[in-house]
Amino acid sequence: MVLLNAVIPWEEFRPLLKNIRKTNDAGRGRPAYDEIVMLKVLVLQALNNVSDDRMEFLLKDRLSFMRFLGMKNERSVFPDAKTIWLFKEKLKEADLIPKIFYWFNKYLKKNGFTVSEGTILDATIIEVPKQRNTKEENAQVKQGEIPLEWETDPNKMYQKDTDARWTKKGNQSYYGYKNHIAIDPKSKLIRDYHVTSANVYDGIAGIELLKNRKEGTKLYADSAYRNCDAFMKKLKKKNLVDKICFKGYRNKPLKEKYKKLNTKIARIRGR
Predict the structure, then answer these.
(1) Chain centre to alpha carbon of residue 180
(2) What is the pLDDT of residues 77-131, one digit of tens each?
(3) Is 33 buried (19+), middle (13-18) or exposed (0-12) by CB count in 10 A?
């Protein structure tokens, strides 16, 4: 993080960010957090691959994070989970995320952060505040429609998330999005990303992340990607090297050679 502060000219992002504040923010309640501070929060969140709630806790808990943000001590007022989520929503509405991502990676490459020979694919569920909608409102949202009451009430509309969806992982249900990311195995820096609703299958979303991978790149991922035929066909078409985990089943356990391969892949993914 010290190195990032040294090589990234954060102030050069300010012109991009200056127009994302709502025009009616001025003069209401606590002053908004500085846009550069919020951008740094999102960088920390991406590097640590954590939810908004977890990020809120880490900002107050880790001295290294406080120094990265320029906060003096733990008594400083840090952005909470809702503030982090709202900032991301503003970036999304202004279509600024691709531009910020492009310039951020450009500065990294300029300062010698080169891409290694492999890529790790990963997907993380990002929970958002659950919507207190009526059954009728939920039905309209699922059909891609916006309830009339929301359209006529800007404050209500601003608090509603029409893109988040429910998904189940293990025995637990989650409401939100999925961050699908391509990570450099050596530096752990994010090289590409794709955001979907939480109910989109990892393999389907992963196809988008294969577009910028060069021929011969080693692709490390968990077994969810191997189980997607469309993803595997795209991987072979681009001549990428298959380093995807294998999955055993109750009636068909993994052979020893596949267990060993999984161990090797896990070492790379977990570095």
Answers:
(1) 6
(2) 788 988 998 898 888 888 888 888 888 878 877 776 655 567 777 776 666 555 5
(3) middle
At 107, which amino acid appears? Y
Residue of 53, 62, 224, 191 lying closest to 126 (CA atoms) = 53
**27 pLDDT above the threshold of 50:** no
Residues 266, 268, 269: CA angle, nearest 5 degrees: 65
> Strands 172-183 and 118-127, how do they pair?
antiparallel
Model pLDDT for residues 97-112, shown as the tens digit of each residue: 888 888 887 887 777 6
- Secondary structure (DSSP) of 60-78: HH-HHHHHHHT--STTS--
Query: Architecture of 116-270 per CATH?
Result: 2-Layer Sandwich (3.30)
- CB-CB contact of 121 with 191 (8 Å): no
pTM score of the predicted model: 0.57
Residues 6+ apart with CB under 8 A from 20: 35, 87, 90, 91, 93, 94, 96
Delimit the domains of the chain by residue range: 1-109, 116-270
Burial class (CB in 10 A: 0-12, 13-18, 19+), 85: buried
